[in-house]
Design goal:
Helix content is 11%, strand content 33%. By secondary structure, the protein is mainly beta. It has a four-stranded mixed β-sheet with strand order 1-8-7-3, with no helix packed on it. Strands 2-6-5-4 form a four-stranded antiparallel β-sheet, with no helix packed on it. A hairpin with a 5-residue loop joins strand 4 and strand 5. The longest helix has 18 residues. The radius of gyration is 25 Å and the shape is elongated.
Length: 157
């Protein structure tokens, strides 16, 4: 029975490890890793830097239902150039105001269920995602507000 020398085994092991490490570089970084996940308990407005040129907001997915979020016209949310798009119900607005960032504006969540949505950024077929979880606020206080006109008050206030 013939055995391979110890040095040959080590060389083969190192070669295999290097091969596996090189194959694991498929992840694309279109978004800075510190801006890929957000969690809020109120409304929010956050600017997200994009690390590439020639990119677009390809879609927004409601993670609870798995469906694409749509605008007021019933079209899936997408933003290819500078501008803004608002979802149906007006609770989320995405604004692209520069070549290297976009802004997420989410209004307060008064629903009992949290909102979890995933924004897909596409650049030349490469995709990266920003995931936002928006919980209902922890505590709300109902305030009774009324308007009353005093007798003798001027017509113009």
């Amino acid at each position: 029975m013939r055995t391979t020398p110890f040095g040959t085994r080590i060389a083969i092991l190192i070669s295999c490890a290097l091969y596996l490490v090189s194959c694991n570089s498929d992840e694309v970084e279109l978004i800075d890793p510190s801006f890929k996940t957000f969690e809020f308990f109120s409304g929010c407005e956050i600017a997200v830097p994009v690390l590439t040129d020639n990119w677009m907001i390809e879609s927004v997915e409601d993670m609870a239902s798995g469906k694409m979020v749509k605008d007021a016209n019933g079209d899936p949310i997408a933003l290819k150039e500078n501008g803004a798009t608002e979802v149906s119900g007006e609770w989320l607005t995405l604004i692209r105001d520069a070549e290297n960032r976009f802004i997420i504006v989410a209004k307060e969540n008064f629903d009992p269920d949290e909102r979890i949505f995933r924004i897909c950024i596409n650049s030349g077929g490469d995709r990266d995602y920003v995931i936002v979880t928006q919980h209902r606020g922890r505590e709300y206080k109902m305030i009774k507000i009324g308007v009353r006109r005093d007798r003798g008050a001027s017509e113009y206030l």
